[in-house]
Amino acid sequence: MPPLLPLRTITVLALMIVAGCSSHKPDEANDNSPDTTHRAGEPDLIPVIAALHDQMYAWEGTPYQWGGTELSGVDCSGFVWRTLKDRFNLPMKRVTTSQLIHMGKRIQPDRLQPGDLVFFRINRQMHVGFYDTDRHFLHASASRGVMRSSLDNVYWKSVFLEARRLPNEHGARISFNYDEDDKNVLAKN
């Protein structure tokens, strides 16, 4: 086995040299990749994404219950309201989808940012969720409970109504879960 040791060492060193040579600082002027940095005047969306994912972690799989606002059962507007209240610390009374659609400003679907509200019309009823990332949104589905779905899904594309941005959401004081006990605290509030 001693002859393999130098061969392994040489292989590891060669890989490190190749990896080191292939990594370089990108030319910012010619970089066509999506910008994930915070630009002056634009909100830093990383805390918004983190808050949405934290809420999703706490609520994923919660069953749908019309009018519900608890971990035992929640509807779409109840999930949005609890997220605004629990994660973005926006003090507001329970709101319905019909009220949410009049809040904030309407935005074009190609301008969606994490935290924007997305609305759908399903059989003359409205449905709401939060835009997440990568053309996905978080919502309380009547059939599957709290979940993440794709806006590119044929069904969701066919019922998409509009998107709205709430101005107080970006830059809000954001709260996070830190352990399983927080799920119990959330359910009691």
From TrEMBL:
NlpC/P60 domain mapped to chain residues: 46-167
Record-linked Pfam families: NLPC_P60
Keyword terms, alphabetized: Hydrolase, Protease, Signal, Thiol protease
UniProt xrefs under InterPro entries: Murein_DD/LD_carboxypeptidase, NLP_P60_dom, Papain-like_cys_pep_sf
Hydrolase found in the keyword field: yes
Superkingdom in the source lineage: Bacteria
The family this protein is said to belong to: Belongs to the peptidase C40 family.
Descriptive protein name: C40 family peptidase
Annotated organism of origin: Erwinia aeris
